[in-house]
Amino acid sequence: MLFTELGLSEPLLRAITEKGYTQPSPIQAQAIPVILKGGDLMAAAQTGTGKTAGFTLPLLHRLASGKRARSNHARALVLTPTRELAAQVHDSVEAYGKNLPLNSAVVFGGVKINPQMMKLRKGADILVATPGRLLDLYQQNAVNFDDLEVLVLDEADRMLDMGFIRDIKKILALLPKRRQNLLFSATFSDDIRGLAKGLLNDPVEINVTPRNTTAETVQHKLHPVDQRRKAELLIQLILDNNWHQALVFSRTKHGANKLATQLEKANIPSAAIHGNKSQNQRTKALADFKQGKVQILVATDIAARGIDIDQLPQVVNFDLPNVPEDYVHRIGRTGRAGATGKAISLVSVDERKQLRDIERLLNKPIEKETIAGFEPQDAPSNNPAPNRSSKPRTSNRRNDANGRRTSSPQGQRTSRGNAQNGQQARQRTARAS
Fold it and tell me: Do the Cβ atoms of 289 and 271 come closer than 8 Å?
């Protein structure tokens, strides 16, 4: 199939041709006709398969034939979980819509709100936004949804993982009941399907790839190594293999900063990108990485969502993610659009559980290669637990006023806390990033 067969307007086809595309990806070939007809859509496809163009192209086509947006009004709203993804989607809107008389805007936190308010005064046929900043703008009467025709939830799974469900529900309550709804996601969890039931009206469902899978063009490999020698091994891999560009994932903001500093000391141009960086710092780091000024970009999961780099040769897991699905999202940064890529993981003995969870999710083991000179020395202790019988035992029970034994509030709180651990795993990961 060719883009010319999908029913898109001539100005859009011209923009597509200028970008060098002739054939739509599977998600684009299936999603575009559905959106052009005006129906609701629930679409799942792995990262790097062209989801963004899959909804921006038909969105631009439909909006071009209507009235322009009024001041402070939006005709289409695209919600994304991160600033980087919002900027990426808006770039696509501008690139594909450059031959159309449409206004677009992008709003997100981390930057001053006044320029965004001024931009919205012109009206936005397509508004791309992160949930928190959008609600801020609404509360200041800077944006109105009375004329909204289309809602797009992009990377809906990540928005739920990051705890945006309350903000999403607040936004949904502000929108007109009659509208087209499009839900795009790399994966569909049970929570996503629950959200879709209350949002979508008789949607067409598209599943381009199986749930929680990575591109077949990506080669996966893990290197066992002691935690304290990970940075040393990474530096050797970069130098020995002459990596000119690699995206490295750290579990925490502090870890990302520390690793970038270590790489710089080894004369490897590096930068860190995470939630504590200002938007200007994040934008500059990403631009320098794309332009080759920075060789290694160290990122946390939250900041890296939405990073779209053509022909990124490898992704490195300096730390394995606590949530196994995040492995799929990380690896989706390489091997995009049919290109080949490498996924390298540096695994220490304390990450065995995360590795088991990831391999269970992928339904296959990851190839293991031990690098000479970096054989792990750390191992789980086989010593029995120390004998604490001589120490007084601390009870979680106490006597009440009548001398009866009762459970202490501390013990009750501990039980409740343990029960909530699994539910809060993703939220802890998001805060750490």
Answer: yes
